[in-house]
Amino acid sequence: FYGRHYPVAETLFLRYAGYWLACVFWSLGCVSTGYVIVGGLGGADRPALETLCLSFASGVVVFYLAMNALGAVHGLHATTFFVLPATMIAVGARPAWRFGRQSLEQFREQRSRGEPLSPLQIAIWAFGFLVLAMIYFKILTPENAQFDSRWKHLALAEQYAHVGFIPRFGEGWTVATNPHLASILYTWAFLLPKAKLFDQVELAAHMELTCLIWTLATIPAAVRLLVPGSRASSSWVARFLFPGILLYDSSLACGADHIAALFALPIFICMLRALPDLAPGRCALLGLMMAGAAMPKLTAAIFLVPGPAIVVAAVFVWRSVRERKLLWKGPAAATATALGATAFFWLRNWIWHGDPLYPSLHHYLTLHPWTIDSANLFEWGYKRFQFWRPAAGWEGIKDALEVLFTFSFIPHDYGSYHGKVPVFGSLFTLLLLTLPFFKKTRRIWGLALMTLGAIFTWYLLHHQDRYLQTLVPRMASVTAALIIRNWNSGGAARIALSVLIVTQILIGADVYFIQSHAMIRSPIKRVNDLLSAGYKGQYEKRLEVFKDWTAIRDALPEDAHVMLHDNHVHLGLSRRTTSDWGTWQYGISYGRLRSAREVWELYRDLGVTHIVWKDSVSKGWDSLAGDLVFFDFAFEHTVSKRRVSGHWVAAMPDNPPPDTPYGPVAFFGCPD
Questions:
Q1: What pLDDT, on the 0 to 100 scale, is given for residue 148?
Q2: Cβ distance 254 to 154 under 8 Å?
Q3: DSSP label of 263
Q4: pLDDT for residue 671 is more than 80
Q5: Which one of 224, 312, 473, 624 is most buried, by most CB atoms within 10 A?
């Protein structure tokens, strides 16, 4: 009867259920293969939850490596969507099944012997699930994808899946030369057979949420190491005492920060397990976790890796001096594992562009591509302009030291997002004041100091609040550990602690509703519109997303290689691309070309077949000469020009234009 009003096959529930099934399938593959690695390198004497979380994190790194290997041999196809996770499940199926069954039996036995949840614990869990549901509600629409995802993380994944391999970008597009574990994971989502763009982006969003759930699961495992003997099962909720996760652009939006955060606690756990004997197997597992943290983005590597690396180096030196022999095997195993697991990033850059960290080492190496203008663009247009950094010298260091205490009270974000209102969450900072009053807190001190060191580095390097989301699992673990220690003190400490926690929750209660999404203002409203479209019978229309770029996609042949001029966002184009945006590429300098023939030859060398540019707009990032050269070629020498969704779409001519040198121009400009 109801099917006549709303066909069952059209319900969105079936689509979302499919995404969850796919994420479970992917997770099983990661856990199964990861369990073999953790068991082989780290021993079998770990608690079940810790083993599970480390297995998933290890499996994610293996999945990333396998996708890269397939991408190198043109193996990214629809069959890969099923074959790769199935193969990873088969690798460790038997030992993982035995482990799972034993862990389930132990859990049941512990539950039967343990005390039932108290009303307070039930309230804590209810709060955690409520916040998790609120986060999930926002990602129900693909349009929740953030600005960077639409031109970096998801756009790269879409392109890799379309061409079936990981190509070299001849213009030296630094988006692709950066480490992109998140994009490689999302590529699997875009391999989903016979799927709409809606489904592909939604599956990617569910993969990011899956990583968040595993991150939450790792917090109790870490807290049990920080406070041995504690009942830490509720400690995962401490992650939501930092309300910044509810707000653009620190929330889940198909980015890379929460993918990197997956490895924040596994690194710390593996470091503790590797100390003090520095066993090679356990150090190798630590190196694998460090590689996982380094591959989503370089900032994550800088924030998460140095602290544990310094600790391991210090123990190595101390024990080597004390025992009068070099305990080199463990650190060597960690280094070799980390270098091997990151080789697809640095070795590929070295081979393709002459710089393992392209273009960061341009002062010392010969890079390709690299123009006469590239060094200036990189130093001043990218590093000095794009990064948020304090003043150089002692003044900047003094500010960074001050920020260790004020970072959660003073926002470091775009004013258009949430103005001057602090939304990050301050319990980590405030509860650290109680740490000196407790005994046997060496591990808490260690994690807290590593986190503070990373915050110090964050401020000196690029201090936008969203980059701190990578560190929040460590902050949440320290916060949870200190909540436990303060709560166990009883009396007035419990009252003060309760007031503090409730105050933080109330302060952050409206953060979720701030309409600051850079692309759609309010994801909540967009999800509401999406869900109500079924009532209106708009079953297909509600699945149409990023329509400007899908229209341009449909106007291009399948094998088109598109030059995107002055453009960032292009999710939905699903074609191979080259970008000419200065400071993000270093192989194109239009103003240095002497004729339309040279432009044509450059485009041919890059493989470009079509050009897309915004109608009547120059972003003003190129020189005036560069603008004149591009627009002369685009309007005077391309063929089959047409306007699509506010853009010009044109094809490259088969024959080169005359090699007539450009002459002088008359320029009428504004005073600025």
A1: 95
A2: yes
A3: T
A4: no
A5: 473
